[in-house]
Amino acid sequence: MTTFLQVLLNGLMLGGLFAIVAIGLTLIFGIVKVVNFAHGEFLMAGMFVTWLITTRLGLHPYASVIIVVPMMFLLGALTQRVLIQPLMSAEDDHVQIFATVGLSTAMINLALLIFGADIANTPNFGLRTPIEIGPVRVLSGQLYIFIAAIILVAALQLFLKNSQTGRAIRAVAQHRVAAELMGVNVPRIYILSFGLGAACVGLAAVLIAPLYPTSSNIGTYFVLTAFVVVVLGGLGSIPGAFFGALVIGLVDSLSGFYIGSDLREAVVFGIFLLILILKPSGLFGKRMTLSHLS
Amino acid sequence: MKLTKFLTSAAVGLALASPSFADVKFGSLYPISGPLALLGEESARGLELAVDEINAAGGIQGEQVVLERGDAVDNNQATGEARRLISLVGVKAIFGTYSSARVIAASQVSELAGVPYFELGAVADEVTGRGLTYLFRTNPTAANMGKDSIEMLANAIAPGLGKDPKDLKIGIIYEDSSYGTSVAGHQDAHAKDAGLNVVLKSGYPANTVDMSSLVLELREKGVDVVLQTSYQNDSVLFLQQANEAGYKPLAIIGGGGGYSMQPTADAVGHDVIEGVYDVDFTQFEVNQEATPGLDKFVEAYKAKYGTEPRSGHSLNNYVGAKAVLEALDKSEGFEPDQIVAAVKAIDVAEGTTAAGYGIKFDETNQNERASMMGMQWQDGKLVTVYPEGAAVAEMRFAE
Amino acid sequence: MSISDIHSQTGMNTRSIGWPQVAFGVLLASLLLIPLGIDNAFVSHVFITICLFAALSTAWNIVGGFAGQLSLGHAVFYGIGGYAGVILFNLGVTPWIGMFVGAAVAAVVGMVISYPCFRLKGPFYTLASIAFLEVIRVLSLHFKDMTGGATGMMIDLRLGWTWMVFRERWPSLLIVFGMLLVTLGVAWAIRRSRLGFYLVATRERESAARAAGVRTVRVRLIAVAISSALCAMLGTFHAMYLTYIEPAAMFSLAFSIQIAMFALIGGIGTVAGPLLGAALLVPITEWARASLGASALGLHGFVYGIVLIAFVLFMPNGIMGAIRRFARSGGKAAVEPAQTETGPIVAPAHTVAAPDPDRPGIGQDILKVENLNKRFGGLHVTRDVNFTLREGEVLGLIGPNGAGKTTLFNMISGFLTPDEGKVSLRGVDGQFHQPTNPADFAALGMGRTFQIVQPFAAMTVEENIMVGAFYRHHDERDAREAARETAWRMGLGPLLNAEARGLTIGGLKRLEVARVMAMQPRVLLLDEVMAGINQTDVRRAIDLMLSIRDTGVSIIAIEHVMQAVMSLSDRVIVLASGEVIAEGRPQDVVRDPHVVEAYLGKEFAHAHA
Fold it and tell me: What is the mean pLDDT of residues C563-576?
């Protein structure tokens, strides 16, 4: 029984981890309607910067948030402005997908060029301390990630619902042309949203860096899982992504324990395919008629 | 035909670094870009140091050795580079290759071309298991790693723990690429031969970000001894998550990869990794009476590359390459059959190389004297503890 | 990308052979002759790699380009071919047979995994393809008994043509070059065949393609099957060439991306593009690896990524796009029609008078609509709609905006399934049938246009009409002939080679009708073909419709232009809020007080009082 509880808790914590990575992705997905294949590499870049700041300046890894998040915002905004914006008018999605795939390849190899193939370890400043909750235990760092994911979801919801900019963003997400006619500066909103999505993954990077060794290809694993989460949660739905992440975390943990560690990937992707095929609007998505679905 | 000539010379010109005269050329085929680049490069350095040493001593058969590099980043590329080295550069033999998949692909080419191939670092059984005439392997293999880890467990660790090895519950976990899979297979087989009790054998993808389920499974099954064959990322993850879950098996025996690297110890913390065993190629904290020439190698390495060796890969490549090159010096020429004859005659006794093991090829062209060593992390350093002749420290057992 | 352009650049055009054809031929020949001439194992290897990637990329392009389904999981099929070849090889079966076994397996797997994914478009299909690749890779690691697991599988070095393993390089080169030719031939044949037109039409506008009788799922499944089978055969060859396979190499995402990338750089959706991409990039990659790879870790991968981004940003149509632009600016501007105005309609001049509902030429019932009901959520869009259409009759369908006219059209052409009620269409066999999907409706002779014009923007006028003409003609030449004839009849003759996206709104509406007419429908549904066109065009359109009617086609026309309704319709039905509120001769209906109130408004009533 204890073991089962521990498996569940591990799954939840893993879910929190996936959630915080996926929130930025779903934001970009939902608003700009672009699948950012370089999202994992954004995470990787943020983790390397956190590692640099922590090791070179001796700061607590969480302190690097004041540099990493604005930096990632700029990176995201720049990506949208320079790479995606010129392609928005393209008739099919091919070119946008290729653009972000190209960016992903370039970033992985750039990291290899700068940091080498060695793993980079961010000092954990006690964030790996186990906390006992009854018979089960959890790492403090994991718990902070989980809490941060909840706060981030709530904050984004508030922002999107109540602020002027947030409303403009939602208008653009719902109907680009209509929003444009209403006088919303759509390109600006896109740049802002992409930046915002990247900033979210910047926050994720800061929180994850002390818990996981950073390497040039760490993004690949996270991003595939994040795609699963985003689709599961319903495209562009932020709370959906959060709950989707919890589901995937639990599935991953349970299948790893009960089916076998070598097949857990197959189980996770199998579920992903089932959802795509049976309910492409996601488990928690509202009935949405997205332009991508015919 | 003019066009043809032009293209040939252009292609040759592209591919060649200016060749000098009266040199003998060998291929150096390692993955030096892509995901395997780090240890591929580290392995290549061992070969380079061996060549430097031989050249400083007058070369072989009076000729200076020139290495032509090839990059075996993937299997298709490995065969392509092997072809380039053989047909464009005209190398007399190829040395390599660190990755088992790459050497298997590349040596199929060299075998058909009749060019000798010397494998100095790849561990999969299939490398020498194919009955090739021109492929030789100097380094210990997955079979050695499997055998030596079980022997160390049965002969040294279990007695040290005051247990009968047959009473211990053993769990074998491994990353699921060819490396981990084949080592784990040998561990399983040897353990069963020795009548040991293997209660769990489970693979996982090396790029995983979570091993907590596996840790729980091990704990649930009451595993006393964990044998893990892994790369760096998953070694770190496993050690950390086992520690945090409060899972403390009597012994953890790592197989190569991540367990032999200092950054792994730094990453998981010296207190966490304290007492963890490791079976791998000969490392640097070893009794030098068993490994003569080791300090000379380390000095040469530091002089050339400006850092300490990053892992034992360079050392093993160095030892294998040096033995082969010295044998070639005694050969009558560089024709493939002359090379093969010279190499088959190699007979280097145990305890006379910098890696400790001797070199003599068996009928499958595998070095039958190759062996691995047992190490333990003690006070943040990886020290050799097994076999006794090479040990620099006593095994430590937790209370 | 218009299809005619491809023809003129692949050297296959029968009409003329220009420098692009010669250049392409030279390139193709050089792929074989250079390595044979140089006779060096490494050079041969590079050229074998070029041919392999060019062929894989060409095969990918059938799905990724023609059908527009961007797969980044195509290594699945290549891997299946490789494994089938090796497993059978080790059982003593020659790879010449193994490759067809692999192809069959891959085709089946391809269809099974694609079928549910076809409602996913754009990034979703891409994600699904990646997920399938991952699942299959993990499974191939897991089922060691069959695949050898992570250690992979080797073949014994049995030499000779039977075993496809050679000491020399030239036989492998010959084989892969032959396979490249086959693949290019298949791609070329598809592109100019009915299947190719259907694929591109489906890619451009799925609904319009369905209206043209295209079974969109089936044609894409066929494309997937062909593409997968070709990839599998290439996989078998490559496995024999490497003599060693492992899951990490055979089911690799990076490899899949590479295949797609060559097509992108060469020009997606073109026949020659993938070959150009591979011929350019493979040597550059080899060179980059030799000169950059050794010096700095990751540098060459970085350059690779940047090249990809640069191509996407500055040459999104690839090399073929650039060539075409160059070819156009280089003195071939005359290809572009100078005029975009349409020509006169060849139609008998009729005196425009209200037709008699029982005029000669009207036959028995051909379409019966009974008790149609449709709700969207709480909204009752059509309510118990009943009417019949007789052969040779023109039925006007009018009503205010939001009355449910287009929804009704969608139900009587199979695009929407009614909640209740049935639609029966009399076939040529004289029996009434109740088809359920657009393709079945089309098979019974139903043709329709869309209120918002749905041209296949990237195709020329001729090709647009050909999509319709293919419905009656299987052969490309016959379809082209029929399309030309229809185009001239519809006054689109001068614009045959113009891209559809360049037409005026009047031209597009006419194109829409022409495409349907090329299908030679028996029942024609016209959805506001006169909206937004000028007075002269309205007059022409009326003449056009009368001429269509006189060939015996039954027509239902949704129309707001009253002039047209009055002069064309034998009968009119009026729909308001989903209900039929009036039915009868046009003159009577417009005087019906209900209609005047519900639809025409008081002003109209006063004006005509």
Answer: 83
Q: Which of A112, A116, A121 sits opposite B266 (nearest CB)?
A: A121
Locate the chain B residue with the closest alpha carbon to C247: B177
- Residue-wise pLDDT for A221-270, tens only, equals 788 888 888 888 877 788 888 999 999 999 999 988 888 888 888 888 88
Kindly report the number of other CB atoms within 10 A of residue C554's CB atom.
Answer: 27
- What pLDDT score was predicted for residue C481? 86
| B97 upstream amide cis, omega within 30 of 0 | yes
Contact of B200 with chain A, judged by CB distance below 8 Å, is answered with no
* Residue C139 contacts A where some CB pair is shorter than 8 Å: yes
Please report, rounded to a whole number, the percentage of residues in chain C having pLDDT higher than 90.
18
Tens of pLDDT, residue by residue over A170-218, are 888 888 888 888 888 889 999 999 999 999 999 999 999 998 888 888 8
- Reduce the DSSP state of residue C594 to 3 states and report it: helix
ipTM of the complex: 0.86
User: Phi/psi of residue C368, each to 5°?
Assistant: -120, 125
Helix, strand and coil content of chain B, in percent to the nearest 5, comes to 45, 20, 35
Residues 6+ apart with CB under 8 A from B77: B71, C289
B221-248, pLDDT tens digit by residue?
999 999 999 988 889 889 999 998 889 9
**Residue listed under structure tokens 């129309």:** C559
CB C271 within 8 A of CB C184: yes
Regarding beta strands C420-426 and C365-376, do their DSSP bridges make them parallel or antiparallel, or are they unpaired?
antiparallel
Distance from CA of B202 to the nearest CA of C (A): 11
Q: C217 at the A interface (CB within 8 A)?
A: no
Count CB neighbours of B330 within 10 A: 11
Using CA of residue A274, residue A277, residue A280, residue A283, what is the dihedral sign? negative
Interface contact flag, C249 B4, Cβ < 8 Å: no
- Per-state percent for chain C, helix, strand, coil, to nearest 5: 60, 10, 30
| pLDDT digit string, tens, across residues C181-207 | 999 999 999 988 889 888 988 888 888
Contact assessment for residue C536 and residue C341, using Cβ atoms and an 8 Å cutoff: no
Task: Please report the pLDDT score of residue B22 as a whole number.
Answer: 66
Q: Which residues of B touch A215 (CB under 8 A)?
A: 233
> On the CB side of C331, how many CA atoms lie within 13 Å of its CA?
1
A→B interface, C-beta within 8 Å: 3, 6-7, 10, 14, 17, 112, 116-119, 121, 128, 130, 137, 139, 212-213, 215, 217-218, 220-222, 252-257, 260-262, 264-265
Instruction: Name all domains of chain C by residue range, CATH numbers in brackets.
Output: 44-291+303-329 (no CATH), 363-607 (3.40.50.300)
Annotate A71-111 with DSSP letters as a single string. HHHHHHHHIIIIIIGGGTT-SSSHHHHHHHHHHHHHHHHHH
Distance (Å, rounded) from C-alpha A133 to C-alpha C450? 63
pLDDT of residue C294: 56
**Cα separation of A39 and A219, whole Å?**
8
Residue B162 CB: number of other CB atoms within 10 A? Answer: 7
A212: helix, strand or coil:
coil
CA distance A245 to chain B (A): 14
Greater confidence (B86 vs C492) lies with B86
Instruction: Give C299's contacts in chain B (Cβ within 8 Å).
Output: 33
